[in-house]
């Protein structure tokens, strides 16, 4: 019966709580819902929020046959549950009953503009008198208590207990036996709270937010300041530092946090602005800003939420300077008021400096690109209502979705769900759709014409369908379509590769032990050699496929350092100025996450020798920024830059000067011993017996990547032989690998090796 949608309309305002929780419905609506006047009902909002009300017959006409019937509610009821004017709700009979309260806890939230008088120990008596005889109250109820001569305070119902305890949402009422308390400290939180919603007052509901626990903690701290009474000794007298700027890349959850803030219970007024709204004339902007903040000040405690503030008040933008000053002036007026301003931006540097001064948006809260743990939390939340195979799918995906933001992961899950549906419901030209009346919610059912006899046959086919689930196969397809929108270079994450994964890397590991591990393990000894300075940069060069990237990853994982991977080509393809900004951001991240290795792959794409032309000018700016950062982080400990290139001769000479990339490590084609180690890694666990010795000579001159490609080809040949021969047990032979070596294209030439040798002599 609760499948009918109603639109929320507001009843005329009244200062009394009498009848505040009545839901006024048309007589025919009450009859349809099987509700009588005075029955308790459950109200369910668009976002799933539940509230409780008392069914009541509307005294006035409900309109001229509207398409959506109105449900008229008082402002008290709407504020208690967060039902907005004009939104849609569903109403159904409640499973709870109206019961007397054994305990009611109140929090004072008197606005600054009220004449609160002095505490005369009679406010509890006044509150009891105000609530006595009230038909119903709920957690979240806000009401004013007068004391004569214009003096009054505002209180918030924070906690209600009944005997026995009831499931939320519920309504209750005060009796002579009810223990009413006014909490001494607004920060106090009862341990046995029975709330009308899933969130506490002045607290962000984190049920639909994952991976941002520290950020939520900071925002909730600021919300608690709003609920602290003006007379409370624990409340700071100056609240200028309460405001905050939330920043982060697109898709990290900035707007999600603002939406969650807008739903916080206990806030009297929430006003929102978007940067795009403040791109008009100066007079229009001033009018909009003033009216917004005046509205917030008039209804404390309140929130001012400004999305994309960097659009309207950009850094070093003459056109938006005036808007920035207007916003700063408006925020200044709220310093002593219980008005919290939260703004969002892509970066702190993108916001006009006027707004970042003390007392304004001084506090910054970063929303980072989620790491593996954060991604796993987000995926668990997104997949909480899905059946997954395997069950640890979120953890597996979390480990392989580097660079994905929360928005990316949402798109990934949506796309995988679509692929899962397609897999579970294959299309066929031989099948047709038939519609069953009053069956399976009137969905089209697929049945073969030759098998259709009646509706029961089709229904049986549907019931026999396997249980739908999302598998890794669906996500593998989705990963090809949904790519990470965040810049790859801001990911801070320890890689999983070790030197054991790189065949023949014993000497290489010993070299890095001397460069990195010795100064750490033997600090006292190293301090005696004044000439030993921490390495700033190491250049890895050599032919393609010779484990330069794997070496950088192995260095990070072996010594437990964080790892920032940068694709040089991605940087150079950005808009003018973005490349330089991205490089500065990389080094900022590295300092914060130290010990950190910054790995520039394909560094030749951003640091080539300078020639003439526009591209050369752009490259010069990038190189200059990179060198400034490398020269400037001398005091930053435990930050090492590794760079890889296939074309060392094309690098700008400034990059190779002393104090930058001092050490040049050549990673050439593996020698015989290294090839043996690589082959051992390849054949590990393979079916059959493979003799490695004849393969060593045949694979001479191949890179490690080419040997692995040859092994992949050998596996395909063995698989083909097993399938065509109807074999049930696979068997690989030495001949398969020999064929794989012959079929693999080699890219390393003699001229290439000579060029590397020449570079080694010069450097």
Structure description:
One of its GO terms (molecular function) is ATP hydrolysis activity. Pfam families: AAA (PF00004). This is AAA+ ATPase domain-containing protein. One of its GO terms (cellular component) is cytoplasm. Keywords: ATP-binding, Coiled coil, Nucleotide-binding. With 763 residues, this protein is an alpha/beta fold. It folds into six domains: 5-93, Beta Barrel (Barwin-like endoglucanases); 99-183, Roll (Vcp-like ATPase, Chain A, domain 2), CATH 3.10.330; 213-226 and 241-367, Rossmann fold; 372-423, no CATH class; 499-666, 3-Layer(aba) Sandwich (Rossmann fold), CATH 3.40.50.300; 672-747, Helicase, Ruva Protein, domain 3, CATH 1.10.8.60. Helices cover 36% and strands 18% of the residues. The chain contains 24 helices and 25 strands. The strands form six sheets. A six-stranded mixed sheet has the order 2-4-3-6-1-5. A hairpin with an 8-residue loop joins β18 (432-435) and β19. α11 packs across α13 (472-481). The chain is elongated and about 100 Å long. The termini are far apart. The model is unreliable at 185-199, 229-234 and 430-465 (pLDDT under 50).
Low-confidence stretches: 185-199, 229-234, 430-465
The N- to C-terminal Cα distance equals: 82 Å
According to DSSP, the number of beta strands is 25
Give the count of helical stretches.
24
**What class, by secondary structure content?**
alpha/beta
CATH superfamily of the largest domain: P-loop containing nucleotide triphosphate hydrolases
Binned, the helix content reads: 25-40%
Strand residues, percent: 15-25%
CATH fold type of the largest domain: Rossmann fold
Dominant shape: elongated
Biggest β-sheet: strands ordered side by side in the sheet? 2-4-3-6-1-5
CATH hierarchy: architecture of the largest domain? 3-Layer(aba) Sandwich
Radius of gyration: 34 Å
- pLDDT averaged over residues: 80
CATH class of the largest domain: Alpha Beta
The structural domain count equals: 6
Could you describe the largest sheet, including whether it forms a barrel? Answer: 6 strands, mixed
């Amino acid at each position: 019966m609760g499948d009918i949608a109603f639109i929320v309309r507001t009843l005329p305002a009244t200062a009394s709580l009498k009848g505040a929780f009545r839901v006024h419905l048309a007589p025919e609506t009450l009859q349809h819902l099987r509700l009588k006047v005075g029955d308790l009902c459950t109200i369910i909002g668009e976002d799933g929020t539940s509230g409780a009300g008392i069914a009541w017959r509307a005294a006035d006409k409900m309109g001229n046959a509207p398409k959506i019937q109105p449900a008229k509610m008082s402002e008290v009821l709407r504020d208690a549950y967060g039902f907005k004017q004009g939104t849609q709700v569903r109403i159904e009979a409640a499973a709870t009953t109206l019961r007397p309260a054994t305990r009611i806890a109140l929090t004072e939230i008197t606005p600054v503009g009220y004449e609160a008088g002095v505490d005369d120990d009679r406010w509890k008596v006044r509150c009891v008198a105000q609530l006595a005889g009230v038909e119903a109250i709920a957690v979240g109820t806000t009401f004013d208590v007068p004391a004569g001569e214009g003096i009054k305070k505002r209180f918030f119902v924070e906690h209600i207990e009944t005997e026995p305890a009831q499931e939320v949402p519920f309504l209750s009422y005060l009796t002579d036996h009810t223990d009413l308390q006014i909490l001494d400290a607004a920060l106090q939180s009862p341990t046995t709270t029975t709330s009308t919603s899933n969130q506490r007052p002045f607290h962000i509901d984190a049920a639909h937010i994952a991976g941002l626990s520290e950020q939520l903690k900071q925002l909730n701290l600021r919300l608690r300041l709003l609920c602290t009474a003006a007379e409370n000794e624990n409340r700071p007298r100056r609240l200028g530092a309460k405001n905050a700027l939330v920043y982060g890349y697109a898709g990290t959850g900035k707007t999600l946090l603002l939406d969650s803030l807008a739903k916080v219970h206990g806030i009297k007024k929430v006003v929102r602005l978007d940067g795009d709204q403040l791109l008009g004339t100066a007079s229009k902007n001033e009018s909009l800003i003033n009216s917004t903040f005046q509205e917030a000040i008039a209804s404390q405690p309140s929130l001012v939420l400004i999305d994309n503030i960097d659009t309207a008040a950009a850094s070093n933008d003459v056109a938006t300077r005036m808007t920035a000053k207007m916003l700063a002036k408006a925020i200044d007026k709220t310093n002593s008021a219980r008005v919290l301003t939260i703004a969002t931006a892509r970066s702190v540097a993108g916001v006009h400096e006027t707004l970042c001064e003390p007392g304004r948006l001084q506090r910054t809260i970063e929303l980072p690109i989620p790491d593996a743990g954060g991604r796993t939390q987000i995926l668990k939340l997104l997949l909480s209502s899905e059946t997954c195979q395997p069950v640890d799918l979120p953890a597996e995906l979390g480990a392989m979705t580097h660079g994905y933001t929360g928005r990316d992961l949402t798109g990934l899950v949506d796309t995988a769900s679509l692929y899962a549906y397609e897999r579970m419901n294959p299309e066929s030209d031989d099948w047709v759709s038939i519609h069953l009346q009053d069956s399976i919610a009137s969905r089209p059912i697929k049945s073969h014409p030759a098998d259709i006899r009646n509706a029961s046959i089709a229904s049986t086919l549907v019931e026999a369908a396997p249980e739908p689930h999302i598998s890794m196969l669906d996500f593998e397809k989705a990963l090809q379509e949904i790519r990470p929108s965040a810049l790859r270079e801001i990911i801070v994450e320890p890689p999983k590769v070790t030197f054991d994964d790189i065949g023949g890397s014993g000497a290489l590991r010993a070299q890095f032990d001397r460069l990195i591990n010795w100064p750490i393990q033997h600090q006292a000894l190293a301090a005696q050699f004044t000439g030993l300075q921490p390495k700033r940069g190491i250049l890895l060069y050599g032919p393609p496929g010779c484990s330069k990237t794997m070496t950088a990853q192995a260095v990070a994982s072996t010594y437990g350092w964080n790892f920032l991977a940068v694709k040089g080509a991605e940087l150079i393809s950005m808009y003018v100025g973005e490349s330089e900004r991205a490089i500065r951001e990389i080094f900022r991240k590295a300092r914060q996450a130290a010990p950190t290795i910054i790995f520039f792959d394909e560094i030749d794409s951003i640091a080539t020798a300078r020639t003439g032309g526009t591209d050369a000018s752009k490259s010069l700016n990038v190189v200059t920024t990179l060198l400034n950062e490398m020269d400037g982080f001398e005091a930053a400990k435990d930050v090492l830059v590794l760079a890889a290139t296939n074309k060392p001769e094309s690098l700008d000479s400034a990059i190779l000067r002393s104090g930058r990339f001092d050490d040049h490590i050549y990673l050439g084609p593996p020698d015989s011993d290294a090839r043996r180690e690589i082959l051992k890694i390849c054949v590990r666990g393979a079916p059959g017996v493979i003799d490695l010795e004849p393969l060593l000579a045949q694979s001479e001159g191949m890179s490690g990547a080419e040997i692995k490609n040859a092994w992949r080809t050998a596996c395909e040949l063995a698989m083909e032989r097993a399938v065509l021969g109807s074999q049930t047990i696979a068997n690989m032979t030495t001949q398969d690998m020999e064929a794989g070596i012959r079929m693999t294209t080699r890219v390393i030439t003699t001229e290439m090796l000579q060029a590397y040798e020449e570079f080694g002599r010069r450097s």
